[in-house]
Amino acid sequence: MLTLVGLGLNPKKHLTIEAIDRIKDADELYMEIYTSRLMDTTIDDLEKFLEKEIILLDRKKVESDFLLNLAEKKNIVLLVPGDPMMATTHIGLKISAFERNIPFNVVNGISIQCVIPSILGLQNYKFGRSVSIPFPDYDYYPQSVYDFISENMNLGLHTIAFLDLKESVEMTANMAMDILLKMEQIYKKNVISQDTIVAVISSAGSSLQRAKAGKIKDLMDKDLGPTPHILIIPGNLHYMEREALEKFASLKD
């Protein structure tokens, strides 16, 4: 059996009773942190908290047959920060388990997509397609990211922008805003400008969590708190959403 357990944004706060029960019953306990990272804790502290050894796996190992081969004979648990089914890697793992008739379970956890509306006060049903902003590759800026943001804005919808993580270097929201402005210079559809309002959440779920909203020109050079950052580009704001951003994220006129 293979079980994917969501750790939530903060494992010491968000682990459910079902998650802890699954972990206790596991023959072997693994974890991946390439899709996100641990907040307010370390692997050593988590091992002490769970009273179990945790074996860290890289992306290549998770995407191979390694876990599935083990799960044919043992009760295997893979720990994943946030919610395990938010990553396409894990959806592929579930499909492979189904094809091989290997029992597969998911214990969901709190994800960043769950908490963004509650932190900022934006209405959940007004979010459009999410995007991922990558580090530029030799000055290449993918137009698809820009076009998806454009489509959302044309529909009045909010956009969640996930920020790249490359070789343990986390993109900041400041970097992401600079990338968006460069995309505008290239594709020139009047989607992003210095006056575009954005919101930034830093270290969501941790004791260091912060939220800040404002125009790009006002936030570009500001300290927006410790990473990881998540960037939100609001669409048409209802008056209550604007009031929420003013009160919860210090948005100014």
What is the spatial order of strands in the main beta sheet? 3-2-4-1-5
Largest sheet: 5 strands, parallel
Proportion of residues in β-strands: 15-25%
Radius of gyration: 20 Å
- Strand pairing plus helix content: what structural class? alpha/beta
Q: Could you estimate the helical fraction of the residues in percent?
A: 25-40%
CATH topology of the largest domain: Methyltransferase, Cobalt-precorrin-4 Transmethylase, Domain 2
Tally of DSSP helical segments = 11
CATH architecture of the largest domain, by name, is 2-Layer Sandwich
What is the average per-residue confidence, as pLDDT, rounded to a whole number? 92
Spans where pLDDT lies below 50 across 5 or more residues:
none
N-to-C terminal Cα separation, in Å?
Answer: 54 Å
CATH C-level category of the largest domain: Alpha Beta
Count of individual domains: 2
Shape, principal axes of CA atoms: globular
Q: Please name the fourth-level CATH homologous superfamily of the largest domain.
A: Tetrapyrrole methylase, C-terminal domain
Number of strands: 12
**Element string (H = helix, E = strand):** EHHEHEHHEHEHEHEEEHEEHEH
